[in-house]
Please model this.
Amino acid sequence: MVANDNARRTPLIAGNWKMNLDHLQAIAFVQKLAWNLKDAKHDFSSVEVAVFPPFTDLRSVQTLVSADKLPLAYGAQDVSAQDSGAYTGEISGAFLSQLECQYVLIGHSERRTLHGEDDEQVAAKVKAAIKHNLVPIICVGETAADLELHGPSAVPVAQLKTALSGVSNAADIVVAYEPVWAIGSGQAATPEQAEQVAAQLRNVLKETLGEDVAAKTRILYGGSVKGVNIAGFMREPNVDGALVGGASLDIDEFSSIVRFQKHVGL
Model:
């Protein structure tokens, strides 16, 4: 296992809006979020904040972030494995790069379950993201049935191994562990459960990309993250942030998650 080196990994709090907020609502939300965090004197260099709006909002978010020089990062919720061509409804990584997206979510559990994406498709999308200078946030996680059948970490470890096939050790990536049984359930994994899987995922990074990459790569936890439980996750040595779903649509709640360092006892 890689030694506890999370002191040099900048925490990342990422808000996945899913299919919520149109482009006008996105502008108002991002403005309010930035103001809220500025008023709270949040240090963006100590905890990075990123939002993941729907595709139709990205141009508006780019314009606002650029014009007002907001210290927020943003990314897309998915990317095509293809660069261009007859792929109706797909979004190329080249398009996202032109919108100055820093990140893209890949292999989110809803893409896997609702759209049937398998590990090979996820791996192809990871390569496409890296090709277009996007940082892939590779989502892995198990269902309740997987957990009962295979035990903790087996499924996410296998998913990550496939997703990393063909990735060079120079690539900048993020991994997000999102147990499907915890997403939207209101019942998050315990910090100990998240740490157990995160430690195994870091071992995969070490085995496939080398110890230096494993030491610098951020591993996020996602699944019913809230302001009241984020501090517990962030105390764990291999958890470097959170992928937040529903709570990211509530500015006060999301700001509380971002400001986990201010929580009592951390």
Remarks:
- The chain has one domain: 47-56+73-262.
- The chain has a mean pLDDT of 93.
